[in-house]
Amino acid sequence: MKHIARKRFGQNFLTDQTVLYDIISAIAPKKDDIMVEIGPGLAAMTSLLLESLDHMHVVELDRDLVARLQKQFSPQRLEVHSADALKFDFTSIPVPEGRKLRVVGNLPYNISSPLLFHLAELAPHVQDQHFMLQKEVVERMVAEPGGKAFGRLSVMLQWRYHMELMFVVPPTAFDPPPRVDSAIVRMIPLAQPLECDQFLLEEVVTKAFTQRRKVIRNCVAGLLTEAELIDAGIDPQARPEAVPTEQFVALANVLKKKRST
Predict the structure, then answer these.
(1) CB neighbours of residue 65 within 10 Å
(2) Is 253 annotated as a binding residue?
(3) CB 3.0–4.6 Å: which of 29, 47, 88, 118 could bond 83 by disulfide?
(4) Is 136 marked as binding a ligand?
(5) Is 110 one of the annotated binding-site residues?
(6) For 227-251, what is each residue's pLDDT tens digit?
(7) What residues does S-adenosyl-L-methionine bind to (predicted)?
(8) pTM recorded for the entire structure
(9) 3-state secondary structure 120-140
């Protein structure tokens, strides 16, 4: 029985075999990898991954698809977690000492940003992540300071990951086809991210980019002074998108010191 894609779950199923094999090649699964796939859908990528893996986990919200997956694969090969990935505790997946998770998925575009932030908390336990996302989102993730695409998503993720846009996937590769191009991104957690309080960094970055057309001095007014910007090596007249990640980290650390005195 054909599964009808559900708009409320952001379902667009990848069907192009060439693209699927390109993704598997980029992931390069190894037999004993501890792999978890988010949103396996109709198992197009799952089936190919299992050709190389002994066992893997999937997190699926759609109960019809959960039942389908459980019928299609034995629990010895595929462990199906019927859950919302935004709320799922990925640390509940057992990982042997000294090993890390590998995370993959065709992420629903309607929840991609909050899901990426949820997964960022998992970064110390992750070897790498390979995701299909809206191309525009991936461009924002990997954007360099100085361009219009550089913003809150860029800073918060670049603080934790090295990221690379691997290749672009056209709408014709999906059923139903989305209205936008997609892209594959590789995310490798940094071994030693700059020391920083995540919540203070989030506070500074959110305030800075809320009014990104203004200069940063005006954007963070009431939070940080012009003198504090200068001490952090930032030109108070610079636009937020011109401020690199490490300087936002410096501002978060200034704020932490300021509030602890």
Answers:
(1) 22
(2) no
(3) 88
(4) no
(5) no
(6) 999 999 999 999 999 999 999 999 9
(7) 12, 14, 39, 60, 84, 106
(8) 0.91
(9) HCCHHHEEEEEEEEEHHHHHH
